[in-house]
């Protein structure tokens, strides 16, 4: 028997099948369209994503000559904060999914900041006021989609992030689909109280969001229901937001253990155990996971909006490279960034700045700079942003990190990983299984049905594939950091309110 995991990400959907040792048996992946109807707006077609989900499940099973009978359970992991509202009787969304990167609710953020609601919301939810989270996206939909407010009050319109939408469809949709989410995804809506792990009535009242449109909140590891269709009768028993799933996949179960995922964005999480640590350094306090009836674990998180997405932008918008993986060979044709720095604040800056009015800048340009320098500066920007998040995390937690576990697609880029360890001045460790997001969802699902006995079973699966060690003089590191700080300040206050 095996465990399956649906990884519904920002740019693609995958289905991965794992064995008991956490090895990948089969995988299928399909990208979906990124929609940009206006500057700052980012949307997804939910019908396309649901069709892709069914396609990758079928494909991965076929590749390994398996059927649903070979799966003990499946888990779901997903892009967090991306917001869908659909009709429970027709199954049709009222609007495209509004993606976490979308900035259309900037005015609502300003309005609430003026009402001094930032500290109040942060105390309840661990999250600052920003365009990032689901709450204001739901508010925008209720205020801008004709008839939605009434449908929500009547209980016809229901909300979910992508995990909720997929689980609802997997379990029957309009024919009895279950409407649930887990604590990690709920903690990213800015509607759940971190202490009670329940929807907060005061926040719902403030934002005028009807409670009946929200899913039931469950643990990250329990049997929620059984699938129909191609996964007929397979228990769905794991649900984690993508970054929390990567934390579980990296087996960071002890307080102080941290991981960084290099994907569309860049996300560093540190397990803080059963303690809620409020951040004073621009980080988020969030739920790490809750495994069945065990106590909830919390985390500090630093979110960088644009990492791998910058490589895609160089490929799709500028045509500097033909394939994403070409960026490393191009960047390797020059010895340094040529004095060029790239701040990819396309949708504002996330941790530790939280500046929604920042925009992307390329600075330090001279006639000497060519496309290879720009490619190198783009890669370096991910490492610089990670450095700032790690420093904030050490300051908040009072824990000095001795190494950093890394995962995600960009860890294949050796140039980036070496530059990252040089900047951090600590070893950077890549596990043998870099698909830790899907693996974490599989772990949560498997624990719930007894496929894995306990956390020790999972820890035994973790092994090191590669380790990078710092090889940069302190003077050079400080010089690079100095110019990065100058560059990032140039991106501030671009968008006028």
Description:
This protein has helices spanning 46-63, 106-114, 118-125, 134-144, 148-154, 162-170, 183-186, 201-207, 242-249, 308-318, 326-331, 371-397, 414-424, 436-448, 455-459, 474-490, and strands at residues 2-8, 12-18, 24-31, 43-44, 71-78, 84-87, 97-98, 157-160, 180-182, 192-193, 198-199, 216-218, 221-226, 235-241, 258-262, 266-273, 284-289, 297-304, 341-343, 361-363, 404-407, 428-431, 464-468. It has 497 residues and is an alpha+beta fold. Strand 10 (192-193) and strand 11 form a beta hairpin. Helix 9 packs across helix 14, helix 10 packs antiparallel against helix 12 and helix 12 (371-397) crosses helix 13. It is globular, with a radius of gyration of 22 Å. The mean pLDDT is 93.
Question: What descriptors fit this protein?
Answer:
6-stranded mixed sheet, 7-stranded mixed sheet, alpha+beta, 16 helices, 497 residues, 22% strand, globular
Number of strands: 23
Query: How can the largest sheet be summarized?
Result: 7 strands, mixed
Number of helical segments?
A: 16
Radius of gyration: 22 Å
Helical residue percent?
A: 25-40%
Q: Give me the side-by-side strand order of the main sheet.
A: 17-18-16-15-21-22-23
How confident is the prediction overall: mean pLDDT? 93
**Globular, elongated, flat, extended or rod-shaped: what is the shape?**
globular
Query: What percentage of amino acids are in beta strands?
Result: 15-25%
How far the N terminus sits from the C terminus, by CA atoms, comes to: 56 Å
Uncertain runs are: none
What structural category characterises the helix and strand content?
A: alpha+beta
């Amino acid at each position: 028997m095996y465990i399956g995991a649906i990884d519904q990400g920002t740019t693609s959907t995958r289905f991965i099948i794992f064995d008991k040792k956490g090895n990948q048996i089969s995988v299928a992946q399909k990208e979906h369209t990124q929609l940009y109807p206006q500057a700052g707006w980012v949307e997804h077609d939910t019908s396309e994503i649901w069709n892709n989900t069914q396609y990758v499940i079928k494909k991965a099973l076929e590749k390994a000559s398996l059927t649903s009978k070979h799966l003990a359970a499946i888990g779901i992991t997903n892009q967090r904060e991306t917001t869908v509202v659909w009709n429970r009787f027709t199954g049709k969304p009222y609007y495209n999914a509004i993606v976490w990167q979308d900035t259309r609710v900037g005015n609502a953020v300003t309005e609430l900041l003026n009402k001094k609601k930032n500290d109040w919301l942060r105390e309840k939810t661990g999250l600052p006021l920003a365009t990032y989270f689901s709450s204001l996206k739901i508010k925008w939909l209720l205020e801008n989609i004709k008839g939605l407010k009434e449908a929500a009050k009547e209980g016809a319109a229901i909300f979910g992030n992508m995990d909720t939408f997929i689980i609802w469809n997997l379990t029957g949709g309009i024919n009895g689909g279950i409407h649930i989410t887990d604590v990690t995804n709920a903690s990213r809506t800015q509607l759940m109280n971190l202490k009670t792990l329940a929807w907060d009535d005061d926040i719902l009242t403030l934002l005028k969001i009807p409670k009946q449109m929200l899913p039931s909140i469950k643990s990250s590891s329990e049997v929620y229901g059984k699938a129909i269709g191609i996964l007929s009768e397979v228990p769905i028993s794991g649900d984690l937001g993508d970054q929390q799933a990567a934390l579980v996949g990296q087996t960071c179960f002890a307080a102080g253990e941290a991981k960084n995922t290099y994907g569309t964005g860049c996300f560093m999480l540190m397990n803080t155990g059963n303690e809620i640590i409020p951040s004073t350094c621009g980080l988020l306090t969030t739920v790490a996971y809750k495994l069945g009836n065990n106590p909830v674990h919390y985390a500090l998180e630093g979110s960088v909006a644009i990492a791998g997405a910058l490589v895609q932008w160089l490929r799709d918008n500028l045509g500097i490279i033909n394939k994403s993986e070409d960026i490393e060979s191009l960047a390797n044709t020059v010895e340094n960034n040529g004095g060029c720095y790239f701040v990819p604040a396309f949708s504002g800056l996330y941790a530790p700045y939280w500046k929604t009015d920042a925009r992307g800048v390329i600075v330090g340009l001279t006639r000497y700079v060519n496309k290879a320098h720009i490619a190198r500066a783009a890669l370096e920007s991910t490492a610089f942003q990670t450095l700032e998040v790690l420093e904030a995390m050490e300051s908040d937690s009072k824990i000095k990190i001795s190494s950093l576990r890394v995962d995600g697609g960009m860890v294949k880029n050796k140039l980036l990983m070496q530059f990252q360890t040089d900047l951090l001045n600590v070893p950077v460790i890549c596990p043998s299984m870099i698909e830790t997001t899907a693996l974490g969802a599989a772990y949560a699902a498997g624990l719930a049905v007894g496929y894995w006995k306990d956390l020790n079973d999972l820890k035994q699966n973790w092994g090191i594939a590669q380790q990078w060690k710092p090889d940069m003089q302190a003077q050079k590191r400080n010089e690079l950091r100095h110019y990065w700080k100058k560059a990032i300040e140039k991106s501030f206050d671009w968008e006028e309110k």
